[in-house]
Amino acid sequence: MDLISNLMRPTVDHIIFTGNKLDVMIPYHYIERNLATLYGERIELFGLVDVLLDDKIKEVLNLPTMITIYPHEINEKTIDNEKYVIATFFKNDIFTDVNIRQDSSNVEIFINMIFSGKMPRFLKYNDILKVWLKNLSLNSIDLGTSSTILEIIIAEVCRYKNDPQFKFAEMIAKDPTISQYDYTMASIRDICAQNSTFAALTFEDMDAMIISSLNINKYKKEESDSPIEKTIKM
Fold it and tell me: Are 211 and 203 in contact (CB under 8 A)?
């Protein structure tokens, strides 16, 4: 992420891209969820997306709030079965505005990203908390809770890629040589399905959750009590 910021030069009104070529990879689900809107030659975008520098270096744009970008050209491309809008910039193109509008809705957008498991694929695990704190800082929002609580949430939704029933934080603690990218993000819905029969059956998609609960039983997976279940048992 520092690499991208080093290629940006602020002026009085704008931030200028000073590298050779930058492709901002906007997933099509951003457009479907109103996280990106195309207005002719400009795009309003939640600035936490994967980018490609000089057609080879994969990075993450670390502006986790709504911004306006001014690409040189806009194209569509399908990568790994996912559709993207590619916003391309060349040397000395205007990238975005210097002044970023602060709004609590930008914080809500990021929280929804965390809980829905929709984060950029090239974001390192150790960077997720930093990005969340930057989102709060950019919008001058204090959630009234410590960063430890945010870390606990991140640890819950980030699962080991090879076996999502395990938290990635636990796996990397056991083996620090594991790559920081070897996690997958689970939605709250998925976590309910994986962790507890009770939690699964109390979620909204009854058919899918019954199947998940039967699998928990069939393969004798260890379950954890949901907070509601603990209360009922008292």
Answer: no
Give the Cα separation of 47 and 183 in Å (integer): 22
Q: Which H helix or E strand runs over 60? A: strand 57-69
pTM equals 0.77
Q: Tokens 């997306």 identify what position?
A: 49
3-state DSSP assignment of residue 22: strand
Q: For each successive 10 residues of the chain (234 residues), what is the average pLDDT?
A: 84 96 95 93 95 92 95 94 95 95 92 87 92 94 89 92 91 94 82 50 44 44 44 39
- Residues constituting the chain: 234
Q: CB 107: neighbour CB atoms within 10 A? A: 21
Residue given tokens 């070529």 in the structure block: 21
What are 94-128's pLDDT values in tens digits?
A: 999 999 889 999 999 999 889 888 888 889 999 99
Phi, psi of 58 (to 5 degrees): -90, 130
Strands of 19-155 (E only): list them: 21-27, 36-39, 42-53, 57-69, 73-79, 82-90, 94-97
3-state secondary structure of 173: helix
Q: Give me 209's structure tokens.
A: 């959750």
> What whole-number distance in Å separates Cα of residue 72 and Cα of residue 24?
11
Q: Parse the chain into domains and list their residue ranges.
A: 2-97, 128-227
